[in-house]
Amino acid sequence: MTTSTRTSSTRSGDTGRTPPSLINELWRGTVRWDLLTPFPEQDGAERRRGDEACAELAAFLRDRVDPTRIDEDRDLPAELVAELRARGYHRMFRPAGEGGLGLSYANMFRVTETAASWSVPLALMFGKANALSPAAYLPLIPPGALNDRLHRHLREGTFGGSADTEPTGAGGDTRTTTATLDPTGTTYRLDGEKTYITNGTIADLYLITATLRENGTDRVSAFFVDADSPGFEVVARHDLIGLHGSPNAHLRLSGVEVPTEYRMSDVHAARDDVRRVTYHGRTLAVVPAAVALTRMCAYWSREFVNRRRIDGRPLGGYDEVQHMVAETVAEAYAMDALSRWTLLGGTADTLHEHAVLKNVATMTCWRAADRTVTLLGAEGLETAASKARRGVPALPVERALRDARVLRVAGGVDFLIDFWCARIRLADCHYRPADEPGEPSGTGGLLTADERLAGHAAFVDREAAWFGAYCAGLAARHGDRAALFARQHLLVALNRIANELLTMAVVLARGDAGADLADVYCRAAGRRVTALRAELDEASDRSAVAEDWLRGDRYAALLDDVITGPAETGRA
Known about the structure:
With about 575 residues, the chain is an alpha+beta fold. The chain contains 19 helices and 12 strands. Its cofactor is FAD.
C-alpha cells in the first residue's frame, strides 16, 4: 500500500519544528495518508524484549493469581501487591539495575495489556503506578531537593499515586482542596478531600492538586505528599460496579504540611510537558485494559459459538451471529492498529492521538463487551464462578462488561474528554493561524488494490474535507470562541466524528492483508459518522425540558408508583 503526496498546514519534522499531527490535519480538513505509510512497527529487538516480558508475566499470573477470587472478594491480596512490587511492575520504565524492568513505553503498554487480559483491576493498579505517579513527572523536575526526594523514593521501591478528582466532581478548572503558605514562607498547608483515587489505599507518595492563592490570584498547583504525613487520611475504599478489588479510595487532607520545595511550581510554565505526561499516563493507565478486553471478547465469542448448536445447526452458521462475531473481531483489529499507531507514530507527533485513543478504545471495548454478552444470552449474564459450579467454561463475560463500563469513566468520563479535546482542536486549528499555510490538498489519497478499501478511503477524504470546512465555518461565525465552546453537545459530536475518521484512516493504512477486517470495521464506522452528522443539525432545545425537570415542578407523574430516595443500609 502506498500513498500520494499531499501538502500540509502543519510543519513537517525535517524543518526542525514540531512534527506534523495527523489529528490536527484532519480537523483542518486533510487526511495525511503520507504520515501513515509505512505503518510503524516495533524494532525487532524491542519486540522480542516485550515478548519475553509479556510471557514472564503471563506465567506468573496463571500460577499465582485467581481473577475470579479477586472479583468475588473485591480485594487484591496484600501479598500479591507486595510480590508485584518486588518484581518491579510498579516501575517498569526504570532500568533493571534500579529495580525496574527497563521497558520501553510500547512494551509497558503490552505488559499492562497482558495483565488486563487476566485481571483488569490488577492491570490498572500498576498501569497507574507507572503512568501517573510522581515518578512519571521526574524528568520535568530540575535538580534540587525535590528531584533528590523523588529519586530516593524510586530507590526505595515505593508505590506512587496521583490525586486530582474531588467530591465536587472532576470537570472543573479549579480545585476545592487548598494550599496555604505559612507565615514563614517555608511550608504549605493542604486542606481538602480527594475521591476515586486509584491506588489510594496502597500508595506511599502522591502528587496532589490544590488551589493556591498567590498575589491575589488563584491557580491550581501540584504538591508531592507522603502518605504517612500527619493529617493525611484514607477515609474509605470505593466499591465500584466493576474493577472489584481495585485499591480505589477517598482521601482527606487536614492541615497536611508540605515543604515549599516539594511543590511542582512549573505546572503552568511547562504545561506542554505536563500535558504530554498526562496524555501518555492516561493511555497507559486505561487503554491497555480496553484493548485487552476487546481482544478477549473476540476470543470468548469464538469459544462460545464453536461449542453451540441450534436445531442441529452450528451456531456459527447463522447470519446474525456471523455479523456479531465479525464486528467484534474487526473492532479488535482496529484497536490493535490505533494503539500501535499512537504508541509508535512514525514521523508524526501523536500526542493528541493519545486523547483520541482513550475514548475510542474504551467506547469500542464497551460495544464489544455489550455485544458479547448479548451473543452469549443468559450465559453472558452469569458469573464465571456460577459457570464453573455447573461445569461449563467459565468465560468471565459479565465481569468484562462491568469492567468495560468503568473504563469509560476512568481517566476522565468519555463525554468530557470529547468536549475538552474539541475545544483544544478548534482553538489550535481554527482560532490560530497554521504554522505554515500549505497549498490545497490534491485529489490523491491512499492507494490500494482493494476496491473496498479504496471506497472507504475516498469516504474518509470526503468527510474530512467537509469536516474541516464545517469547523472553519463555525469559527468564522463565532468570533467569540466562548460562545461556540458553550455548545457542549455540538463539540462532543464534532470530536466523535473526528475520532471515527482518524480511526478509519489508521485501519485502512495498516495494509491490504487485513482488508476483510478493515472493510467490516469501516462500514460500521461510516454509519456512526453519518449518525453523528445528523446530531450537528439538530435544532431541538433540551434546556427547557432539563430545567423544568430539575426544578421539580413539572412532569411529576413520571415518578408515580416508584419508591424514591436511597434505602437504609445495614437493615436485616
